[in-house]
Amino acid sequence: MRLFLDLEMSGIGIVSAQRAHFTQPLKLKGGSVLPAFELVYETYGTLNAAKSNAILVCHALSGNHHLAGHTADNPANIGWWDNIIGPGRPLDTDRFFVVGVNNLGGCHGSTGPASTNPATDKPWGADFPVVTVEDWVESQARLADQLGIDAWAAVMGGSLGGMQALQWSLSFPERIRHALVIAAAPKLSAENIAFNEVARQAILTDPDFHGGHFYEHGVLPLRGLRLARMLGHITYLSDNQMAEKFGRRLRPGAGSYGFDVEFEIESYLRYQGDKFAGVFDANTYLRMTRALDYFDPALDFEDDLARALARARAKFLIVAFSTDWRFSPARSRELVHAMVHNGQAVAYAEIDSVHGHDSFLMDEPHYHAIIDTYLKRATP
Amino acid sequence: MRLFLDLEMSGIGIVSAQRAHFTQPLKLKGGSVLPAFELVYETYGTLNAAKSNAILVCHALSGNHHLAGHTADNPANIGWWDNIIGPGRPLDTDRFFVVGVNNLGGCHGSTGPASTNPATDKPWGADFPVVTVEDWVESQARLADQLGIDAWAAVMGGSLGGMQALQWSLSFPERIRHALVIAAAPKLSAENIAFNEVARQAILTDPDFHGGHFYEHGVLPLRGLRLARMLGHITYLSDNQMAEKFGRRLRPGAGSYGFDVEFEIESYLRYQGDKFAGVFDANTYLRMTRALDYFDPALDFEDDLARALARARAKFLIVAFSTDWRFSPARSRELVHAMVHNGQAVAYAEIDSVHGHDSFLMDEPHYHAIIDTYLKRATP
Questions:
Q1: Which residue positions in chain A have pLDDT lower than 50?
Q2: Most buried one in A247, A277, A301, B25, CB count within 10 A?
Q3: The pTM is what?
């Protein structure tokens, strides 16, 4: 009860999702066409009369549209970026109209692999196309149209969400005034792709995956999804933080010289893996990782990132975290260097943080102060 | 044919394994007792009359006793450390008698999970005990006894092999004159354990694992072992090397927007995983990773590594590689600092290498020169 009251007082309070229908076919980068689709989204704050104060927040691999506040049925179901969104918070809902959207291909209400394929009246499953960052931006632009938003005051996100913010500045240079690209990279490294590939293979080779058509078999590829998530968590944390948080601490009753949980870190990973496998869709996971792999705006510019970014008109804030080894500060600096080379407006902050890649989700005062200051200067 | 001739001329030539039987029961650290066991080993060079020129080489996670030369039936079956062992090579077989042994619990001929459990007349499977680095050293000491070797001129190894060399200096201070500890660490970090745990979970949750008793079911947990190896390979290579070797290069025919191989790195990992899963034993893999997890000589000394190492009488050469992020140079320096604190004889080399953790297996001239020089000064 206490928790509930605190939330009511300080944050967004109760929120509920909305649903947008799009009947115009969407041609995807991979070549296929979605005849129609739906996007689930939430909004916080009020769109001003000029419709100039809207901020789009894009989510990362396992995120969704529920950014802030909590659902009416469950005070504990708090949005994943609640610490940054609300009255007086860096994304100040007294000033901004904030939009969170579940990506196409997702598993939180937007059209995705578990949705019904109109051609078969069965779940899409494996037949749901691979979607790219460009496709997401295209679909989000349709949502902006429907909301009457000609240009976003800002588009922002962390990790894969940051890549969408960057892509917005390239796909629709005139429809985005600021891009906040946090804990991201201009493209994945071979090592990044390698981690994604092991995660995908865990899912694809799970006998319960059934080639992506598990819905019809009444089973879920829980083993594969669990392994994928366990592996993901290793890359989200920093080595130092893992050492601090778990070290080599043994679990009570350890010393069995077997393969049950002996070390705290094992318990943590199994818990995270189990929790995730129970709620996330394996086909969505595959597509999210593939979108990461394919993202490479410089590919059509002979790997010249500066040329690739030249058409952007947005002002940029790039943020990286010292202990992030998934997308290290060096990767963010590639973006900064290209933008500086182009004479584009870019601010860069490298935050000291122990939380690795996950830092972008954390309540880091210095980081939040930077977002706050940047957005205060960004007049709607 | 050309390959065969080259080998005959420059290296060890044809070798064949030997087998040692031990009928004295071996009490393991975990509490169980092996009533009897066998170790498979190979030797190169000649044991001198004083039996003072013997070097024991300990293998890492997926290694075995076949260090150098090739088997009679297959000129391509070259030992895994052939580049360092032979006449005129750093482990000069004109001077030294080199011994390679397959670890207890292994899957290359020594008693292990696939061996027959005398109590049941069936394969040990899951009932084969978890063995530790200390147990391996104990079993290797039995082999030394049988070979009439009172003290090794040197014990050496890379990675988990280096941990065995270190443990030799602690378990039998008077039986080892030099310990060469290469690309190792005094204990695993939480992140190291985390990677091992994901690999183990891949195997343990493979439906074909059958709780470790897959031999009786006529199946192999290939999917789990393949994932474990794919993940392992990410940690063996450096990020830089992966970028150089594979980058984001697409495979011919890529661009399918699906989950088949699109990037070269995916092809590499799948190939490595498939190859390994076909030849290695899953129960051995589990035990090798657990031996890594448990290794922690400072545990009984309130985490004081210097106190833990104080009883060693060997001289040490510690070698680390700049791009090794599995056991980084910082981990080797922990050993060096403790030994310096103790006033022990220790030399330390940090080698610039692009090959990450795998560097210890590579033909790095500077690295081999250091081993060569060190062993030239180590009079048998």
A1: 1-9
A2: A277
A3: 0.95
